[in-house]
Design brief:
Order of helices and strands of chain B: HHHHHHH
Structural class of chain A: mainly alpha
Shape of chain A: globular
Binding site for heme c 1 (chain A): 41, 44-45
Distance between the termini of chain A: 75 Å
Order of helices and strands of chain A: HHHEEHHHHHHEEHHHHHEEHH
Radius of gyration of chain A: 24 Å
Subcellular location (chain A): Cell membrane
Number of strands of chain B: 0
Structural class of chain B: mainly alpha
Helix content of chain A: 40-55%
Number of helices of chain B: 7
Helix content of chain B: 25-40%
Strand order of the largest sheet of chain A: 1-2
Binding site for heme c 2 (chain A): 187, 190-191
Main location (chain A): membrane
Oligomer: heterotrimer
Cofactor (chain A): heme c
Largest interface: B-C, 72 and 76 residues
Chains: A mainly alpha, B mainly alpha, C alpha/beta
């Protein structure tokens, strides 16, 4: 009996010794997990139903399809042979250990802002995953961009390597928010428009909305009467990022996944920081004049009104008022009025589902209308919702619908 | 909870080329349903596509009785025991053949050639279970024909009947709408709305 | 040979209202739960969305939400001396299939039974003497009381967001509610629905006659609502497609819209669809259920072992599974022996139509499944039955449910069956007719029961269950009494003419009446009078529980869903608080 007890005590000691020798491992790991979520690494580096982080997801870019890397610690196909330094270089410079350049579908243009400490924590966490053997396909990129060295030129034009210097007259929270949003959280990857060569536009164009996976990611700029977050309060934005919805809207499409896999895990401080940063963005750049509403007696509007009354009003309300916290209002909706109608049209064609979260488990979904409404009818009702209930936005043509169908 | 963009389970579209009736059967059913719902200021059953509706229905799962209990033995039931005939398509085939043969045996004109009053009397006889048929139950046939006629006449046009929603216009039913909140307080005044079909652009 | 699967703590057979309730309650207590559903997954925005749900042909008449009789059905006869024949098509009642079960296509009329309903025998004997229980009437007390169920009624109403007005708050009678109802610990979670014109006609007439009309308790939302599980329901849009249809915009409480969003997230819950359970297996000593045997959609057979089995199918399937598994003795009406299949009961319906001239438009399509006004003066024992020759009763209501024209095209008496006269009458009456109905209790009788059919078999080769049922004198007298009251109110509603439709006898299985089948695995206070104890635990196998209206010893005058749910919560509470600590009989026989 004594021997057995001795053995138990001994093994207990061994455990304690291990724990002590790596005193920071546990907290580093937790931090790594947290930052991996903030960066939403899983979104690109996992395929639904497959092992997480084993890569292989095809990312359509304007130039061809790029396949996300296997970032499990598998020696042959993943990061198993990588050092912490090599990982940091890939994150911040877009260069692999073999010297080849990464395509900017991997957002190193953002991750360049990530501190060494944060990068190391992520690397430590990724190294605790089960290694998965998964040889990811090569990208399908046409010449000359398929020559990875071509990225050198691209980088010269569009890549500002380096850290963000704190802005002294802004709060600590604002600076933290900026660090996260511009860096690991890479919000601009979707919400900032890109130029012809796929680079995010800078300056006042940043965060004015972009098209991603065929969805229009709305502007995050402030300012009354503008698009995007113009009329959202700080509480609205925090509720949205934490719980996937607020009184104005629900996360759907790619943003639903972002909430589910990333923003709902943000610490209270980081959530507040990101909100502080975005609510402080200068007003959006208005392209010329504000849109004039399409006339009420326009044939598209009268036809659209009839379609709306029979197909849409049950949820979105006879006056476009929606149902608070359940069905999005159309009246005053920045999404409905966004200059690019892509999202509105796609939602009508394919439907959309609100992301279910712990606080809001109901995944209210809009049904798909592709089987029911013609291109012409979708265009009419889209034009209507963009211009009824006090809204104003350019009309949508049947051709636009046909292209998106 | 699984969900995919674009996922939908729309109604099965009417297909006029998928049919069951022979020419004689079609003529019989046309004559019969136009006595059940004749033309007046509003169209008759066949004018609204009721025959096309029934013809198509009998050619599919309904006609075959796919989700009905169709195992034997088949016996004549009591009036309270419900449908005891073969699957609906076969019921139509047997009943129409029996009626036509019965008329011919008695040197009477074909059903389609009878005077309207005579057609009515014959249909009424079937409905009361007075006339017996050789291979199936007369009342079951009448009840099924009547039920299918109502379905074709008042059902959504996506299924081939109720053409241009004329039956709905006749009674003032606004069709496949989903939101009547603006009219809750109608106070006994008629709510007049153009009907709409569940099929949208699928309506032929 | 069946493949043997890893054991689960709890297996639930059937995934409708009570399957979801039990799964939610038991997973919340940390139990590992697997639900087996013969049908498929289905959800609002895809399978019955606002853009495809309003289709009478597809849903009502081609049975899209109802069960597939080619797989299994029952045979039917009115009396034991007749030859039972199969129910080949659905008619009188419409059980559902697929995730959500029959609850997906209900109207949403959500009632509590009266306190005295739970003491049906002792209460009536005490008030009217032994003679009140007529020959062959086999009613009995439930073994559970209203007071025991009250918290569970209350919780279910909050899960559903029932719209209504309390009539009795902790014993205080409230204006505008049902003064006859049992005490309620709290007000309904949502205010009553806004009334359209027809129920207001009924309300005014009933008031004029001295009755106390109140808004029907409704699972159609009067406003947006978030339930205790955080699940949201949207305001009802009065589309008039509730019963026989699924709701397209999240405004009718069903398992899918109130429980599943929370339940499906839980890691200790698994749902397996396409699993057709053939029987419950027992150990060699016949003292415990060991699991269930089921077929998947490919026809492969599996044995799913479980520490606890809950049968949560529709009553006919629960009873059938007991019979097919040889659990308990099948009832024999000759000897009165055996409990399985005993005390089958139903609902007895009658009504009247009020026809108006053109000056009053009903707009029947502006409606909802549980939108209406009700009086409860003639339900249960709310009135003196002395000298009436019957016990029991029912409510009288004007529900403005729908204007779906295939199903609903009333015509006055004397209208030809078909033809030009019929067509004209339909045109003139469609928008000008208001129905008033009586929804009556059906007592249990020796001659109304379920057993196995000697001739017909299902798609799996098992004998079909056989239903023997007819309305008996007590209930016909009761119904006719209520019909007289219906006519009285109908005549006071200011129409041009009234046509009265008394109950049709004998009971006919073809025309739709109501999906309120009850009994067959009834509850009671000892194994000599019931299949389950007051916690719906099998007397025979203590790790087997049965939920649903099969537990009702007889059927009171209200719609059953509220009580079906309250019994399930009551059962789940006993499992959580008593059975888990000491797995065995919760009531000693």
């Amino acid at each position: 009996m004594r021997q057995v007890i001795g053995a138990i005590i001994l093994s207990g000691c061994a455990g304690a010794a291990w724990a002590q020798s790596d005193a920071n491992t546990w907290s580093t790991l937790q931090r790594g997990l947290y930052l991996t979520r903030v960066g939403d690494c899983a979104a690109c580096h996992s395929v639904e139903g497959e092992e997480p982080y084993a890569g292989g997801l095809g990312l359509p870019t304007p130039f061809g399809t790029i396949y996300a890397a296997n970032i499990t610690p598998d020696n042959a196909t993943g990061l198993g042979e990588w050092s912490q330094d090599e990982f940091y270089d890939a994150m911040t410079e877009g260069v692999r250990p073999d010297g080849k350049r990464l395509y900017p579908a991997f957002p190193y243009t953002h991750f360049t802002h990530v501190t060494r400490e944060d990068s190391d924590a992520i690397f430590t966490y990724l190294n605790t995953l089960d290694p998965v053997r998964n040889d990811v396909e090569s990208p399908e990129i046409p010449f000359p961009l398929n020559v990875r060295t071509a990225m050198r030129g691209w980088n010269m034009l569009f890549f500002d390597e380096g850290k963000l210097e704190p802005v002294e007259d802004k709060s600590e929270a604002w600076n933290r928010g900026r660090y996260l949003a511009e860096g690991l959280a890479h919000c601009g990857a979707c919400h900032t428009p890109r130029n012809m060569l796929g680079a995010e536009k800078g300056g006042n164009a940043a965060y004015t909305g972009g098209v991603i996976e065929g969805w229009f990611a709305p502007s995050l700029r402030g300012g009354p009467g503008g698009e995007g977050l113009a009329d959202w309060s700080e509480e609205d934005l925090a509720e949205f990022l934490r719980h996937g919805r607020n009184g104005r809207s629900a996360a759907f499409g790619p943003m639903a996944e972002v909430v589910e896999k990333s923003t709902r895990y943000l610490s209270d401080e980081d959530l507040e920081a990101i909100v502080a940063y975005f609510k402080d963005l200068p007003f959006g750049e208005v392209d010329g004049e504000a849109a004039e509403p399409v006339a009420e007696d326009d044939p598209a509007m009268t036809a659209g009104a009839e379609i709306y009354a029979t197909q849409c009003s049950a949820c979105h309300g006879p006056e476009g008022e929606g149902v608070a916290g359940q069905f999005a209002p159309i009246a005053g909706s920045s999404l409905a009025q966004s200059s690019d109608p892509t999202t509105v049209v796609r939602m009508i064609l394919e439907g959309a589902r609100a992301v279910p979260t712990e606080k809001y488990p109901t995944a209210q979904a809009m049904p798909a209308y592709h089987w029911k409404l013609s291109d012409e009818e979708v265009a009419q009702v889209a034009t209507y919702v963009r211009n009824a209930f006090g809204n104003a936005a350019p009309a949508v043509s049947a051709g636009t619908v046909a292209d998106l169908r | 909870m699984p969900w995919q963009p674009g996922e939908a389970v729309p109604p099965t579209a009417f297909d006029p080329d998928v049919t069951f009736f022979t020419e004689e059967e079609r003529a019989f059913v046309t004559a019969a349903v136009d006595r059940l719902i004749p033309a007046d200021d509003y169209p008759s059953a066949s004018e609204l596509g009721v025959v096309d509706f029934i013809d198509h229905q009998l050619a599919g799962a309904y006609g075959r009785g796919d989700i009905y209990y169709m195992k034997g033995p088949f016996r004549d039931g009591l009036p309270t025991q419900g449908y005891q005939a073969q699957a609906p398509a076969l019921l139509y085939r047997q009943a129409i053949a029996d009626i036509r043969a019965g008329l011919a045996r008695n040197d009477l004109a074909d059903f389609t050639e009878l005077e309207p009053e005579e057609q009515d009397r014959l249909l009424m006889g079937l409905s009361e279970g007075e006339d017996e048929l050789e291979h199936t139950d007369a009342k079951t046939f009448f009840d099924t024909l009547w039920q299918n006629t109502l379905e074709g006449y008042f059902g959504d046009p996506v299924h081939g009947g109720n053409r241009d929603m004329e039956a709905w216009k006749m009674i003032g039913f606004p069709g496949a709408r989903y939101d009547y909140r603006p009219w809750i307080n109608h106070g006994g005044n008629p709510v007049k709305l153009e009907p709409v079909s569940v099929g949208g652009r699928m309506v032929p | 040979m069946s493949r043997i699967l890893p054991e689960r703590e709890v297996v639930i057979v059937g995934f409708g209202w009570t399957g979801a309730i039990m799964a939610e309650q038991l997973t919340e207590a940390g139990m590992d739960v697997l639900a087996l559903e013969r049908g498929v997954w289905r959800d609002t925005s895809t399978d019955y969305a606002v853009n495809n749900a309003q289709d009478e042909v597809r849903y009502r008449y081609r049975d899209e939400l109802f069960e597939d009789l080619s797989r299994e059905t029952l045979t039917f006869r009115n009396t034991s001396d007749q030859q039972a024949l199969p129910m080949r098509m659905l008619g009188s009642f419409l059980p559902g299939t697929n995730v959500g079960g029959s609850g997906v296509h209900w109207n949403g009329q959500t009632w509590r039974f009266l306190p005295s309903d739970f003491q049906a025998r002792s209460h009536n004997v005490e008030r009217y003497g032994e003679d009140a229980i007529q020959d062959d009437m086999t009613i009995q007390d439930w073994g559970v009381t209203y007071d025991e169920l009250e918290p569970h009624y209350d919780y279910f109403e909050k899960i559903c967001g029932i719209s209504g007005k309390a009539g009795n708050l902790n014993g205080e009678i409230q204006d505008g509610g049902n003064p006859f109802e049992g005490w309620r610990s709290s007000e309904y979670p949502n205010p009553p629905m806004e009334m359209v014109a027809a129920p207001l006609k009924f309300r005014d007439a009933a008031r004029e006659l001295g009755y106390n009309p109140f808004p029907g308790p409704s699972a159609n939302m009067s406003q947006g609502y978030t339930n205790p599980l955080g699940v949201q329901l949207a305001p009802c849009t009065y589309c008039g497609f509730c019963e026989k249809y699924a709701c397209g915009n999240y405004s009718k409480a069903t398992a899918t819209t109130t429980i599943l969003p929370a339940l499906m997230r839980r890691e200790n819950f698994t749902l397996r669809t396409g699993a057709m359970v053939l029987r419950v297996e027992k150990d060699s000593s016949n003292s415990r259920a060991t699991g269930v045997t089921y077929l998947n959609t490919e026809g492969e057979e599996f044995f799913q072992p479980a520490q606890m089995v809950i049968l949560a199918g529709y009553i006919t399937h629960n009873v059938n599974l007991l019979m097919q598994s040889g659990i308990g003795e099948i009832y024999n009406p000759e000897t009165g022996e055996g409990q399985v299949g005993r005390n089958y009961a139903y609902q007895i319906m009658s009504g009247a139509s009020v026809f108006y001239d053109d000056d009053f438009a009903v707009n029947p399509f502006v409606g909802a499944g549980a939108l209406g006004q009700v009086i409860d003066e003639f339900n249960g024992d709310n009135f003196d039955h002395t000298g009436l020759g019957f016990i029991g009763g029912g409510y009288i209501a004007q529900w403005q449910t729908n204007g779906r024209p295939i199903e609903s095209h009333p015509v006055p008496e004397g209208t030809p069956k078909f033809g030009a006269g019929w067509k004209k009458a339909v045109r003139e009456s469609y928008n000008h007719t208001v129905g008033v109905g009586a929804h009556g209790a059906v007592m249990s009788f020796r001659g109304n029961y379920l057993d196995l059919d000697p001739t017909y078999t299902d798609a799996y080769g098992r004998p079909l269950m056989r239903l023997t049922f007819d309305f008996k004198q007590n209930d016909i007298r009761m119904s006719n009494y209520l019909t007289g009251k219906v006519a009285e109110i109908a005549n006071a509603m200011g129409g041009r003419e009234v046509s009265v439709s008394p109950v049709k006898t004998p009971y006919d299985i073809a025309p739709y009446q109501t999906t309120h089948n009850t009994g067959g695995h009834i509850m009671g206070d000892n194994p000599g009078n019931s299949v389950t104890n007051k916690y719906n635990q099998s007397w025979d196998l203590p790790n087997l529980f049965l939920t649903g209206a099969g537990n009702f010893p007889q059927n009171p005058g209200y719609n059953p869903t509220g009580t079906v749910a309250a019994l399930a919560y009551h059962s789940a509470k006993a499992i959580r608080e008593q059975y888990l600590r000491n797995p065995g009989p919760l009531v000693q026989a």
